[in-house]
Amino acid sequence: MHHDFIIIGGGIAGTSTAARLSHLGSTLLLEAESALAYHASGRSAALFEANYGHPVTVALNKASAAYHHTAHGGVLSPRGLMILAAADQADTFAHDVATMGLDRLSVDDARAMVPILNPDHVAHAAHHESAWDLDTDRMIQNFVTEMRGNGGTVRTGAAVTDITRDGPHWQVTAGAEVFTTGTLVNAAGAWADVIATMAGVRPLGLTPLRRSMARVPAPGGHDVTTWPMLIGAGEAWYAKPDAGAWLISPAEEDPAEPHDAWADDMVLAEGIARYQPFVTTEVTRVTSTWAGLRTFSPDRCLVLGRASDAADFIWVAGQGGYGFQTAPAASQLVADLVAGRAPVLDAATVAALSPARFVA
Prior knowledge:
Layout: E1 2-8, H1 12-21, E2 27-30, E3 47-48, H2 55-70, E4 76-78, E5 81-85, H3 90-100, E6 103-105, H4 107-113, E7 124-128, E8 132-134, H5 136-149, E9 153-155, E10 160-166, E11 169-174, E12 177-186, H6 192-199, E13 207-216, E14 229-232, E15 238-242, E16 245-249, E17 254-255, H7 265-275, E18 288-296, E19 303-307, E20 310-317, H8 323-339, H9 347-353
Parallel strand pairs: 1-2, 1-12, 2-9, 5-14, 12-20
Antiparallel strand pairs: 3-8, 4-8, 5-7, 6-7, 10-11, 11-12, 13-16, 13-17, 13-18, 14-15, 15-16, 19-20
């Protein structure tokens, strides 16, 4: 069966791009797992903070903000963000505050917001309201609904096993079926280089990095609903409310092969140990753990656009931990490039995201 566009990967990168491209032609989204958003997209910290990330990522964040706030009634709810530092972390703290545009506040004021903070260890605190929880499931479903509304098709349990050329078309084998397309979109997350190699396209040198998470009971039995997300200076750890419980991550970036990631207990223990001095409540029980792979390009910026060695092969890869934050603007850019329209983003940002930057 022939489609104008085949998108490989059913996370936020693939679903958002499929939705945009469905306005330009027939689309087929292929996902290897039995459900969409199974890997990195299903294990996101789910926060929108426009100033978080590389400057090029921040440009995408800011261009996505209006969509997050308003499209389909919006997908954001108030959260807030607080950075904490010990006395010997003043320089790192100052850098974080300047980069993310936070307002410094006293330790007493910080404790008024988060009463478990340890005044004997917390020496510096800063906060702002401009951080929101993202309804990631709703966001995925909004994009899938848009795609299907334009006649697009989603196939789950459809692992791609072969990609070849059939004249001017790509021939994609998934399961027992073979599909053809004029434009192949690689949104395969940690597997994006694997898909490129399968297609005979030069890989980018993407690196999947594991990040682990522990879910623990609400500290001290507090109602954590209105607490902000907490981040240790230099992103040494972070913690965040989650459905009445409390998430703690060591914020590690350990290289990994593409796989169904799981948390490393020792890494989690080390992360909890870094978090522990900042609070007065001891972590005594972990109710569940998980991990995801955040995949980065060599310069840690997203890769969006036509492959330099195959103009009908589109990269939507290297989202790192910023896939949901950037998806509205990233997918719009891909659709603009495919349609030959002038992008909304400025030329310097578009160039900084292009796969062409990796060609010597």
